[in-house]
Amino acid sequence: MTTPSPTLRKPRSTWTPAQIALTVVALALSVIWMAPLAWALCTSLKTPAESVASPHWIPKDLTLDSWRKVFEAGNIPNWFVNSLVVSVCVTFVVLLVAALAGYGFARTEFRGKSVLMAVTMAGLMFSPAILGVPLFTTVQSLGMVDTYWGMILPQCAPAAMVYILYKFFQSLPRELEEAAFIDGAGRWRIFFTLVLPLSKPSLSAVGIFTFIASWNNFLWPYMVTNNPDLMTMPNGIATVQNAFGIVWPQLMAGGLIAGLPLIVVFVFFQSQIVRGVAHTGLAGQ
């Protein structure tokens, strides 16, 4: 007669002090990050008189009047479409240019490579505001003022994104490409069919960073565009705020409208951002 074997129970998971500490810190940081958004939302639901009274979170007279006035005063759908077109086009061009340049620096040898790499990395030291005047002069001479191309092309010189992809391509094992070379594949075929599929995490992170930066770009579209029909979301919201003056509920409503797409992008693609940064090797730099 055989005795039944005892059922194996899974060990009960216990939290270590380090895990508890990290969780508490993460919750505290989440509260700190969410507090301004919550305050902006609560303020946008208040009346102008209540917004300048003694500070409190919950609106006493809940109203959507501020949101209605922002939509009535501005062409929100048109600004949204303009921002979307510009940001998507900039993201596509930056991904193409940064991937080609990063792979070229990481895997090919040519005369003047170190100098060209140094010049590219020097672009990280200059603020876009410093380059505003020469860029505007160039765009004006090309007849691209008040055009989509005038807003898109000057944002497509991604020194930082080239560096991110350059670091990732350096981390790829050369044996994969050498095996493809032995099988008769050329450089372009290897790049498009082997390297790019392996680079999805880094490409996703670069694409998200670029999209967010382009969507938030206020200065360059403001400089190169005078046509109200071509305004992007940050520029359009700024004109609405100027029309209202400092009326805090409308100010907060406009800011939330402009930032809502970026919040959605972050919520749905935060895992790609973390994975992309981890794969590029930049987390410890």
Describe this structure in words.
- Helix content is 70%, strand content 0%.
- The protein is mostly helical and 285 residues long.
- It has a domain at 83-227 and 272-280: MetI-like (MetI-like fold).
- α11 packs antiparallel against α14.
- The model has no long low-confidence stretch (mean pLDDT 82).
Jot down its keywords.
14 helices; mainly alpha; MetI-like fold; 285 residues; 70% helix
CATH architecture designation of one domain:
Orthogonal Bundle
What structural class do helix, strand and pairing data support? mainly alpha
Number of helices: 14
Q: Which fold name is given in CATH as the topology of one domain? A: MetI-like fold
Topology as a string of helices (H) and strands (E): HHHHHHHHHHHHHH
> How big is the Rg?
25 Å
Straight-line distance between termini = 65 Å
CATH superfamily of one domain: MetI-like
Mean pLDDT metric: 82
Helix content: over 70%
Strand % is under 5%
Main beta-sheet strand count, sense and barrel state: none
Contiguous uncertain segments of 5+ residues: none
Number of strands: 0
Name the CATH class of one domain: Mainly Alpha
Shape: globular
Brief overview:
The protein is mainly α and 285 residues long. Helix content is 70%, strand content 0%.
Task: Walk me through the topology.
Blueprint: H1 17-44, H2 48-51, H3 65-73, H4 76-107, H5 113-122, H6 132-141, H7 148-152, H8 159-171, H9 174-182, H10 187-198, H11 200-216, H12 219-224, H13 233-244, H14 248-280
Helix pairs in contact: 1-14, 3-14, 4-8, 4-11, 4-13, 8-11, 9-10, 11-14, 13-14
